[in-house]
Amino acid sequence: MSKQPLISLIIPTHNRRGPLLRCLDSIAKQNVALEQLEVIVVADSCRDDTETAVQTYAATAPFHVRLVSHTAGSAAATRNLGAEIAIAPTLIFLDDDMEATPGLIAAHLATLEHADVSIGYSRPILPVRPSRWQRDARRWWEDRFRTMATPGHRFSYEDVFSGNLALRAALFARLGGFDLAFAGRLEDYELGMRLIAQGARLHFSYAAESSHHDQSDLTTWLRRVRMDGIAHVMLVRSYPQLHGAIFGHTHLPVGLSTRLLRRLAWAWPQRGDQFLALLIQLLHISEALTLTLTRDRLLRLSREYNYWRGVAAEIGSRQRRAWLAQAILPDVGPDAIQIDLAHLPHEWEHILSVGAQKGLILSINGFVALRMPPVPGAEPLTLTHLRRALLNRAHQDILPAVAIQIFSQGEELCWPVS
Question: Does the keyword Transferase belong to this entry (predicted)?
Answer without folding.
Answer: yes
